[in-house]
């Protein structure tokens, strides 16, 4: 095993050349490229970690997956499910010495032992840097994410590639935003002006009590958004918008939440106006969240112990409602540019608990394949996921989706009927009572690709 371990860790100083080497081996299967690497999944007994372990073992069956957690019974059951190459490793992330000893023996650690809210320290990342082990977390907390980012130089000096805020949202949504911005800058002269992340999850999304605690803790945080380059703070679960998530999800109400991709996208992608919203179903959960944000003091909602008690109270009810609410999940990212160009990415899946694992596994594989430079990166940074690796990451993450589209104008992905009429030199788009008009180029037989690029620049009148 030491040989295998040495293999990946030895490669870290020359990751740039590893990327090049990978490019020449495009025909090599993912199994070949990541064969025999050892991956520790912290929180592997939980829903997100367990789902990641299953997805990783499917994507790359030769990986050795170690399920890390405190519960031996749950851990052993998960390791059995994964097959004979896997085993359970008892590890408490608060026991720094034991954690570091475990990390010394693996090539990559996937940290999903949340909640990340008010965690105080980046214990796992710091231990990974000392152990020279590659790292990815599924953090969804702004403070934690920027604290992790502050270790960038230390990680770079230790030749450790690390990604913070991997996962589905944040994670895949950041990469979608980065790709929309890249396409806008490459294809037109318009400047990206407004980026909007909208998320929908039915019920609790079938994930664990930790994510319930995460949602409650987020209600205690003021929402940070950016408006024309200025940082603004807003009330949590306010600013409702009715967003069309397209096929399989349709229109849903979404509310402002304090999510890390807002500040990272603003900083990294240089978009002046950025916000993130989240909504759930059935509708009364949204009302409940709104009421909690309004009625409960912020200090109460920021207290992890009190929130855990609240979770214990709500969990049986949440599970009962989940049984009929399902766990559909959808991401919609909207990018609007100065020249009126408006493009959208949509990612929808029937089961959040499955999609989050597939998405996290896609990040883990990207790191093992050498797409991440030494340092700590957000997913939208090119050092985090190289531009040429984004498409493969998105395609892997999109496995099992019911709808995955990128870089389309909204009218092509939304569920409302659209009428397209050409009259003389103009195309008219009737978006249910809002008529838009644009000069028509020479379009032969309404080729969808030509139409798409023509209509990309539509601004609502
Ligand atoms: N970025 C994204 O896309 C995304 C999406 C969804 C969720 N998340 C985040 O993912 C995290 C996990 O959610 P979940 O639904 O999987 O929660 P979960 O089912 O409750 O699982 C949490 C896991 O963490 C482990 N854990 C907790 N404290 C630990 C400690 N001190 N040492 C070792 N293991 C510990 C638990 O193990 P034990 O068995 O030892 O208790 C459990 O396996 C949450 O923080 C959530 O916010 C991120």
Automatic annotation (TrEMBL):
Record-linked Pfam families: Sacchrp_dh_NADP (PF03435)
Residue span, Saccharopine dehydrogenase NADP binding domain: 39-151
SUPFAM superfamilies listed in its UniProt record: NAD(P)-binding Rossmann-fold domains (SSF51735)
Residue stretches spanning the membrane: none
Top-level taxon: Eukaryota
Protein name: Saccharopine dehydrogenase NADP binding domain-containing protein
Source organism of this protein record: Nepenthes gracilis
């Amino acid at each position: 095993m030491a040989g295998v371990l040495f293999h990946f860790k030895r490669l870290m100083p020359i990751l740039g050349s590893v990327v090049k080497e990978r490019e020449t081996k495009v025909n090599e299967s993912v199994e070949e490229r990541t064969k025999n690497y050892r991956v520790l999944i912290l929180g592997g007994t939980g829903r997100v970690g367990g789902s990641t372990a299953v997805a990783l073992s499917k994507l790359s069956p030769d990986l050795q997956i170690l399920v890390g957690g405190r519960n031996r019974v749950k851990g052993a059951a998960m390791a059995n499910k994964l097959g004979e190459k896997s085993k359970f490793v008892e590890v408490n992330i608060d026991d720094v010495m034991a954690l570091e000893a475990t990390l010394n023996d693996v090539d990559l650690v996937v940290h999903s032992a949340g909640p990340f809210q008010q965690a105080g320290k980046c214990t796992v990342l710091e231990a990974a840097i000392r152990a020279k082990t590659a790292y990815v977390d599924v953090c969804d907390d702004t403070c934690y994410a920027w604290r992790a980012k502050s270790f960038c130089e230390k990680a770079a000096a230790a030749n450790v590639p690390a990604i913070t805020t991997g996962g589905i949202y944040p994670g895949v949504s950041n990469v979608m935003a980065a790709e929309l911005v890249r396409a806008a800058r490459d294809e037109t002269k318009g400047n990206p002006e407004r980026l909007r992340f909208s998320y929908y999850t039915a019920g609790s999304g079938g994930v664990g009590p930790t994510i319930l605690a995460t949602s409650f803790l987020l209600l205690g945080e003021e929402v940070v958004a950016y408006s024309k380059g200025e940082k603004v703070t807003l009330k949590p679960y306010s600013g409702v918008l009715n967003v069309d998530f397209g096929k399989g999800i349709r229109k849903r109400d979404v509310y402002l939440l304090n999510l890390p991709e807002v500040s990272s996208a603003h900083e990294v992608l240089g978009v002046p106006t950025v916000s993130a919203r989240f909504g759930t179903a059935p509708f009364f959960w949204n009302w409940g969240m709104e009421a909690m944000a309004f009625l409960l003091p912020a200090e109460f909602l920021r207290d992890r112990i009190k929130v855990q008690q609240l979770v214990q109270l709500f969990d049986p009810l949440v599970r009962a409602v989940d049984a009929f609410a399902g766990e559909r999940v959808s991401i919609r990212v909207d990018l609007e540019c100065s020249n009126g160009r408006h493009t959208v990415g949509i990612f929808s899946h029937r089961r959040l608990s499955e999609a989050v694992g597939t998405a996290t596994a896609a990040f883990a594989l990207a790191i093992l394949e050498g797409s991440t430079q030494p340092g700590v990166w957000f997913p939208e940074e090119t050092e985090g996921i190289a531009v040429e690796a984004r498409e493969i990451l998105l395609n892997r993450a999109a496995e099992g989706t019911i709808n995955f589209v990128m870089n389309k104008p909204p009218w092509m992905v939304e569920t409302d009927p659209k009428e397209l009429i050409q009259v003389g030199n103009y195309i008219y788009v009737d978006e249910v009572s809002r008529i838009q008009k644009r000069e028509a180029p020479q379009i032969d037989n309404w080729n969808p690709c030509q139409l798409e690029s023509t209509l990309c620049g539509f601004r609502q009148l």
